[in-house]
Amino acid sequence: MKIVHFADLHLGVEAYGSINSESGISSRLNDFLASFDKMVDFAAQEKVDLVLFCGDAYKSRSPSQTQQREFAKRIKRLSDNRVAVLLLAGNHDMPNAAERATTTEIFDTLGIPGVQVALKPQLCRIPTPSGDIQVIALPWLRRSAVAVREDMRGLDFNQINEKMSQILTSIIGDLTAKLDPSIPSVLATHAWVQGARTSSESSMSIGNEHTLLVSSIAHSVFDYVALGHIHRHQVLNEHPPVVYSGSLERLDFGDENDEKGFYLVEIDCRDQKRNTTFTFQSVPGRRFFSIKATVSADDLAPTESVLKRLQAAAGDISGNIVRLELTIPQECIGRVDEPRLRQVVQSQLKASYFDISRSIIREARPRLGDVSVETLTPTQALETYLRLKSDNYSSATIAKLAEMGKDIIREVDGALRLDTSV
C-alpha cells in the first residue's frame, strides 16, 4: 500500500512575489501550484493508493476564488486517477465562527469520488486499490470550541492549553480502541508535537498553543503517524514513524536551507507483521538565498564593491528570491546606489525577487566626562562642556561664554518655533 503524506500548502502566500499585469495572479501562487503539481504527478505516476493531506490548504481562512479553483483542479485530478484523498482541516482552514464552513468542506458537499474531509476527530475507513486502511483523523482543535466548556471556567491561558492537550490525548485513546488490528492504521493530525524543530521565521506556524507529547501519539498499533503544522520536514520517532512532512514550498527566509517536498509511505501487508518504510521526495521549488556584504568606511566606491559581491553569486541569484544583508557604516548610507543594485540584480542577474536589509554601524557618540551627550539638553551640554574647560579659562570668561551660548540657543529655539507655526 502506497501513501503520499503532505501538508501546509498555504496557497495565497504572496510575500516575495510580483503580480502579473495581464493575469492578475501572483508569481508566488504559480510557485506553490508548480510544487503541488509535482506531488500530484508523482501520485498519479506511482499509482499511489492514498494522498493524506494534513492541513492548511490556504494561507487565509477566506481564500480567493482563483485559489480555490486551482486547489480543486488538482484534487479532482487525483480522484480521476483513482487515488483516494483525505483532507484534514488545519488551523488556517478553520473559520473564525463555528457555524461557518471550513475552506475544504466543499469537497464533502460535492461528493467527489474517493475524497473525504475530516472536520472533527473521527476514525475513517478508506477503501483503496490495495485494500482498506484506517485513519484516525485529528484536525486542528480550536480553542474557542473548548473554552466554553464548564470545566474550562476560571482557567488561565496555559491551563487551557494543558486541558486541550489532555482532550486530544483522550480522543486518541478512545479511537485507538476501535481499530481493527488486521487492517493498516494511520494517525493523521494537525498539531504541534513537543520536540519538533521550527524554522527561524515560523510566524505562520507556531504561537502560544497546545502541544502533544510524542508518547501520546506513537502507539504501537499505528503503522505511521502523519503530522502537519510545522513547516520543516522531520522524523520525531522511528517505531512507529512519527513524521512531519513540512511545507511543500518555501514560505520565507526561515526556509532558506530547508529541503521541501513530501513523504512516500509504503506499508507492506504481505506478512502477518506489517512493515512500514518512508522516504522523503524532494520538490525543487524556488529557492531563497541570502547574500552578505559589508561596506567599510574608507571604501571610495561602495556600490561597485557590493556589485562585485552580487555578481560573484550570479549562479545562486538567477531565478531565486534574494536578500542582500548589507552591513554599512551610518555615514556611508547615501554612498550606496541601491536603485542601481536593484536594477542589476533583477535585470541582469535575473532574480525573481530582490530585497535589501541593512545593518547600520553607528559610531559611539562622544561623552562629556561620565555624561552621555544624548541625555542632555543643549543648555546642559554647554554648561557641562564649560565646566570641563575650567582649567583653561577663568571663571569670569566661562560665565560670559555660558551667557552668550544660552542667548544663541534661545534665539535658535525661537526661530524654530516660528518656522513650525508658519
What does this structure look like?
With 422 residues, the chain is α/β, with parallel strands linked by helices. Helices cover 32% and strands 24% of the residues. It is built from 11 helices and 19 strands. It has helices at residues 27-45, 65-80, 106-110, 143-147, 157-176, 214-217, 302-312, 314-317, 338-348, 378-388, 395-421, and strands at residues 2-6, 50-53, 84-88, 115-118, 122-128, 131-138, 185-190, 192-193, 211-212, 224-228, 234-237, 242-244, 261-268, 275-282, 288-294, 321-329, 353-361, 367-368, 371-372. The strands form 5 sheets. Strands 4-3-2-1-13-14 form a 6-stranded mixed beta sheet, covered by helices on one side. A 6-stranded mixed beta sheet has the order 5-6-7-10-12-11, covered by helices on one side. Helix 1 runs parallel beside helix 2, helix 7 (302-312) packs parallel to helix 9 and helix 10 packs antiparallel against helix 11 (395-421). The longest helix has 27 residues, at 395-421. The protein is elongated, with a radius of gyration of 30 Å. The model has no long low-confidence stretch (mean pLDDT 88).
Structural topology:
Elements: E1 2-6, H1 27-45, E2 50-53, H2 65-80, E3 84-88, H3 106-110, E4 115-118, E5 122-128, E6 131-138, H4 143-147, H5 157-176, E7 185-190, E8 192-193, E9 211-212, H6 214-217, E10 224-228, E11 234-237, E12 242-244, E13 261-268, E14 275-282, E15 288-294, H7 302-312, H8 314-317, E16 321-329, H9 338-348, E17 353-361, E18 367-368, E19 371-372, H10 378-388, H11 395-421
Parallel strand pairs: 1-2, 2-3, 3-4, 6-7, 7-10, 8-9, 10-12, 15-16, 16-17
Antiparallel strand pairs: 1-13, 5-6, 11-12, 13-14, 18-19
Helix pairs in contact: 1-2, 7-9, 10-11
